Amino acid sequence: MKLTTLIKTINTAKKIYNKIVPYFLQDILVRKFGQGTYLSQVEFHIVDHCNLNCAHCNHFTPLASENYCKIDDIVDDFKKLKIIFDNIGKIFIVGGEPLLHPELLKILDPLRNLYPNSEIIIITNGILLDKQKEEFFDALKKYHIALSMTHYPIKVDYEGWIKKLDEMGIKAYYFSLDRNKMRKQNLNLEGSSNKEKAFLKCHEKNCHFLRDGKLYVCTPVPNICFLNKYFNLDFKIKKTDYIDLNKVKSASYINAIFKRPINFCRYCNDKEIEFDKYKISKKELSEWVKI
Ligand code: SF4
Ligand code: SF4
User: In the chain, where are the structural domains located?
Assistant: First the structure.
């Protein structure tokens, strides 16, 4: 059999399996005969604000008020997630700037206990690395936490830090190398975008996001509240735009939902992707909305 025919046959078999086998049964089967239920990746805010405030930030961070998320609440959310997903590929600790949280290290032990095999990564702009005490680097080593840096055009010696962390035995790498330009969000205020097209082009549909007992397919939906509040807008989130972890308990169901566009996709860019030169936010609507 040719490779292409084999791939087609496997995909058809997968489609039939997903259609005829109920989700709860798929979960049971993967637990009994596979490696357990699985989510590819999830991220969460440990703070909402940032010390850099880039224009076009896709977490709308320059518009967020100073907010340090409660460690206990995050742990509770991960306990709920653990009931559904036995394994998670990657867990990203993000913000805002995670190093702003005075209790950042307190999340590492519970996270590592719940998900011993996940890759856990802190995403940082690097500005506060110089200020970290020995206990910070010790904790990264102890709990096998990686540090991922976005290479912004600012005065941080990213090369030097990657080398230094490597020497300390801490996994460190660039999250994004080219931040001389930023992708424009170009949100559609009318909500008249083609959902399928927007979803197909979307760079964020695998950036699943955990907040307040809810799991979202992507980053913009849970964080749109910052844009709405700052500019007094009304981007609407429907109940079908997220998974309520108190109600939904099936990993197979969630993974199936995450493969399809949601109602909120009607606000996203379904046209050509545009970029803008890197700059600090002036908190102007045009940084996020097509006007
Ligand atoms: S450093 Fe990252 S989180 Fe902070 S404003 Fe820039 S893009 Fe947003
Ligand atoms: S709402 Fe849809 S198109 Fe917009 S970021 Fe999320 S998944 Fe992507």
Answer: 39-82+89-112+177-287
